[in-house]
Amino acid sequence: MGASCKLAFLAGFGYSQEWTRVTARLPLMHLPEGADMSRLPLGPYPGIGYGHLLSTNPGVVVTRHEWLVHPIPVERPERGYEDVRMECPVCGRTFTVRVSSLARARQRQQMLEWGWKVSLAITVLCGLLIIPAGEGLRALLYLLLGLGGTLALFMYMRLGLTDGVFIRWPTWTRMRGHMLRWPPGTPRRWQR
User: Fold this and answer.
1) How is the chain split into domains, by residue range?
2) Which site from 12, 81, 131, 155 is most exposed, i.e. has the minimal number of CB atoms within 10 Å?
3) What SS3 state is found at 179?
């Protein structure tokens, strides 16, 4: 695929022109059948980018945030992880991103996938055992039912965000208008 096609592709996902020129040499990832549970299949480059908050429009029910998403132009390491210092081209803030290797990111996805399935199975089992259980055991089963359901939902939702990229510094609470985000138009799990 030529560089101009890659520029058009990346610009279509909301990437800025400056960063599309930088990443035009990156190979594009195609979404095969039976891909990983996260939004995009894992490849040599992270699919998730970092976003800069452009505007916030408060509404009656929903507050709309507009993000400018930039790719993370770093190749994954062979093993382990690599901490990369990056700078936002919009505001100039610096932050550190930890990019995991392909094997480590896949291992995390598999762990989260098994985790939500096991938690859901425990939730269903507790729900079925509540009916014949005695009074003393019901309170414990209700507690396990709530915890298992919450944990299953949390792991399932986290699985959609896992790409092996994490913000290391500053912490999430001090990012002030920056966040790891999927580019606009990225297919959701139920759209594949």
Assistant:
1) 3-105+158-191
2) 131
3) strand
Amino acid occupying residue 26: L
Q: Which residue has the tokens 């790719």?
A: 71
Helices (H), the chain: 3-12, 17-22, 102-129, 135-159
What does the alpha-carbon distance between residue 164 and residue 40 come to, in Å, rounded to a whole number? 12
Q: What is the mean pLDDT of each run of 10 residues along the chain (192 residues)?
A: 45 47 40 46 82 86 85 88 87 86 88 92 92 88 93 87 79 70 71 49
Q: DSSP string spanning 74-97?
A: -PPPSSSEEEEEEE-TTT--EEEE
**Greatest distance between any 2 Cα atoms in the chain:** 68
The whole-angstrom separation of Cα 93 and Cα 169 is 11
Q: Which residue has the tokens 């507690």?
A: 143
